[in-house]
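Recall from the previous chapter that SMILES is a line notation for molecules. Here it describes adenosine-5'-triphosphate.
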Amino acid sequence: MSKPKDTHTFDLFGDAVETQDAQPSIAPAPVSAHPALSDTTELLTLCERWVARGWLRDLDRALVRFLATEAPDAPALLLLAAALASHQLGRGHVCLDLNATLNAPDFALSLPPEGDDLTDPPPLPSDVLATLTLSEWQAALHHPLLTSEGPGNTPLVVVTAHSASETRLYLRRYWQYEQTLHQQIVSRLEDENTPHTQAMNDNATTATDNRCRRPIYWAIGDDSHPGLLPQALNVLFKPSDNLDWQKTACALAARSRFGIITGGPGTGKTTTVVRLLALLQTLQLAHSPSQPLRIRLAAPTGKAAARLNESIAGQVSSLPLAQLEKLLTNCVMSEDETRRSATKTRSLHPVNEQFEERFNTVSSSAIAIPTEVTTLHRLLGARPDTRHFRHSAANPLALDVLVIDEASMVDIEMMAAVLSALPANAQCVLLGDKDQLASVEAGSVLGDLCRRAEAAHYTPETAQWLESATGQPLPSEYLDAEGQPLDQAITMLRVSHRFNKHSGIGQLAQAINQPRHAQSDREKQQAVNAVLRHGYPDLHHLTLSEDTALDKLVIHGSADKFLNGGEGRTNHKNEPIAPPTGYRHYLKVLNAQRPRGESFEDNPAAYNAWAAEVLSAYSHFQLLCVLRKGPWGVEGLNLHIAKTLRSEKLLFGSDYTLEKGWYEGRPVLVTQNDYGLKLMNGDIGITLAVPDPRTPGKSLLRVAFPTSDPEKTIRWVLPSRLHAVETVFAMTVHKSQGSEFLHTALLLPPTINPILTRELVYTGITRARDWLTLVEAKRGVLNEAVTREVMRVSGIG
Ligand SMILES: Nc1ncnc2c1ncn2[C@@H]1O[C@H](COP(=O)(O)OP(=O)(O)OP(=O)(O)O)[C@@H](O)[C@H]1O
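With both inputs in hand, we obtain:
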């Protein structure tokens, strides 16, 4: 088998215009139609051959068999489309786009990127589909038992959108998720400008019921507290000569029941959302002093939740709450004053003397902002052995505001489940970086919803409202009289406060992130290379010409390769930055700070403190890679690094132990949620040796995981209880999403691969907080990678 021909169309679902205009990779002179296009038995045989090669999943073939049994008269072309649609789900696409598949058929299956040397290869999709036209395929997609064009009971749904050339085939479940998402978002956006009387009635409900308390009318049409919104925004944001996108984001997200705040690393998403919550709570208390909003914060993984937890706690403590409470008190006093004089003039009856009570409630009510962040699975109440959650439309969550961080990692199934479980009037705010890799599961919801975020598309009405709320006029380039309702609910933060123009990490992220339509591939490569050559203090570009360079990096961190050996830098808050390290650092801490002469049971605090130090030291460095298998993948690198650390006498164990067993210092990544052990997918633990209480002088291994519980900072787990973990000296970029490391080393393999795209490189480098080492196993791979884009197929956005 040969390598797919056009490497520039590696991204099957790349830019639609380009793929349509591009030369199709269909063979120019087909001889005759492949029998699998018209004969179900031939098709099943073909699927079997594809499954044997790993090009198609067994699951996909099983679906075809099932459909063929259910409807023996179904056209083979329909069954083939079903197999490919099912296969796309495993590759992150929600559906099969027929036209894109005909334009680049070989990307519809999981072909090995470097070709397949085995003899007697099965026909490639490009061979099979060579004679097929779009209209023939479209015509074959209609079958009363198997397909429909919308609601119904058929297992498949056909959607023809915009123009007849855009036909998508869905498995019904995924079509339904898309519909749910669409309906939930539209219904939350549609009445943002109208007072919501039902919500006011809901105010009378008790704290334990799950109807929403939030009266959404206050932000727009609230007559009782004129000016409270702009006043509160002015308390929360300092005056600025430039357009403050954070203030804009806060106002827009407060205005509607669905909002998105997107932005790159350090653009202030967390800072903004904390202020948004303070704003919402202030507005709510002005109306219902004794009924603060019930706010919940969630993230898709335990790691992302822990990170938000950490940063949000710091942000809440710096909020100007006293000023907001003063504003609130003045507001309630003036309201009651007005009411009092109105009552006096209307009648001689005594004034309604609830004033004192209301005043006291406000002045004693701290504007409560939660700092605890949970995972989405926990929030919804995941149950073992079922994909259904405890909370759903039938049993909604008891909350008024939900903030979801790292929303780019949330797949379509989870997003539909969350939105369905929200009470009708609850407010949902998504935070995330639209340019990051999407979830590994099907769907790239945040990226799809934010397709128009760059240019904003605010209507003149929105701009006018924003100006009255924030005091800031919007530049005309962000206005669009044709702006969609969704555009009005999205703000993109555009200024990084963590990476300024002197930061190589920030500059590289920016150069890589330029969308394809904004510049040619060559211009992008030149921009990226200019950043690499510039000599920024936080960035080192390493091409592996000698074997030991990678070893030096992972052991020592290669501080000597950075300007001044990494000494003397400060961060954006003027705090000193420690020089970059490698894995030696945490292993040194492990040995140097080990509690001596005390048993684990007698002094758990000492062991917890030790474990916390080791875990913190581990987070100073992480090697990221692209692949799982092979010498440049997680598996090969993990073993290589463990052996290298052993040769430095930093780790101990036989080859077998290092490859398959447990040893002190082994860092592990949890790969599946384990509710029994309270461990979440993405958690990192370190294996430590603690004294064995049963055998004096001996030790036993336990794995230490950090917790967010201040009472019990470390969770100790016996290795035998951990089933879904892997060594994490090397971590894939996909798994690193939602995490951040002081020194991140991103290793690109020597050959290009379909998953090596701009989004992946961007996601990898933005995991670095202070130092980035970009490693190319062979020069040139980065240049190729940054010109490839992933575009997921879906009907959202
Ligand atoms: N307007 C601002 N002025 C000055 N510093 C700011 C401002 N906004 C945020 N920061 C600081 O910038 C840093 C990054 O902010 P924040 O954590 O809110 O960004 P983020 O977008 O959530 O980052 P990430 O998701 O990449 O971790 C923080 O130290 C924060 O205090």
